[in-house]
Structure formats: C-alpha cells, structure tokens
Amino acid sequence: MATAPKASAKVVPLDDAAKAAPKSTKKLMIIALAAVVLAAGGGGAAWFFMKGSDHAEAEEAKPAKAAKQQPGKPPVFVPMEPFTVNLQSEGIDQYLQVTVTMQVADDTQVELIKQYMPLVRSRILMLLASKKASELNTTEGKEKLQEEIVEAVSKPFTKKGDPLDVSAVLFTSFVIQ
C-alpha cells in the first residue's frame, strides 16, 4: 500500500505564535494612537485658526471707536451738511468736498450735537483744512481722518462739560478736486 504524501504544513510551536500576536497588536495600537493624536491636533489647530480669524474679522469690522450701544437698540445717526474746504497746498490748489454722518449713542447726544452745531462744524472744518490731498488719497488716510474727526467732535464744548459720545464718523461723499 502506498501512502499518500503528506501536505507540508508548517507547524509553529505555541511559544512562537504567542510572541507574534502581541507584536502585531502593539504595532496596530501604536498606529491607532498616532492617528488619534494627529486627528486631535488637526482639529485643535483648525479650531484655533478659525476662532483667530473670526476674532480678527470682528476687530476689522469695528468702527474707529466701538459703539457703546446695548444689543437690540438701533444705531442713531446724525447727518451733516457737506463740507467744502481748500486743502493745504502741494503746488496746485486742491479742494475737498465731503459729507459726514456721525453715529452716536442715543437721542440725547443728537440734541447736544444740534445745540453745539456751529462748534462741531468749526472743529471739523479746521481739521479738514489742515490736510493735504496726498494724506487723504489712501484708505488709511481716510480712516485716520475719521478717527481724528471722532476725537475732535467728542471733546467737551464747555470747560466742565461732558464729552460727546460719538462712536463713528462715516463718509457719505468724499471728493478731492
């Protein structure tokens, strides 16, 4: 009788099989742990940058001086008559025509501005007439002028008076000729 050839099966001793299983499990655990750490780090970085950009955009969106209004209360605006001034000479005569609207805290501030309108207009005219066209041609120059107008108009009109609460100055027309 002939015996059939036996299939060659490799028999691994139990000790070697037991050693191989934990080694592959360790690799799998290390890979899984690395993936979790990377995902958490990526999520944290995304959150940080998203919050940082929201904060930066919010800062850019604020007017020159933060409005001191309560939430839900509509803004109060005071439109002014146009200003026309001669700008400081840079070799040729140049003029500025600008229309300004001021944002204030409440109707009390509107009444104060109306009461002191000649002084308000005088302060703004003097400030505008001290500028050169080259200072006002850029966006930065216009933003600086807005801040300077807020500062000039906010000063008290009497020695012991309260400062006006002007939160922003908005240009509704701006022409240099």
UniProtKB/TrEMBL annotation:
The keyword RNA-binding does not apply. It is found in: Cell inner membrane; Cell membrane. It holds the Pfam family FliL. Keywords: Cell inner membrane, Cell membrane, Chemotaxis, Flagellar rotation, Membrane, Transmembrane, Transmembrane helix. This is Flagellar protein FliL. NCBIfam families: PRK07021.1. Belongs to the FliL family. It is a single-pass membrane protein. The chain crosses the membrane at residues 28-50. InterPro entries: FliL. Its main location: membrane. Controls the rotational direction of flagella during chemotaxis. It comes from Noviherbaspirillum aridicola.
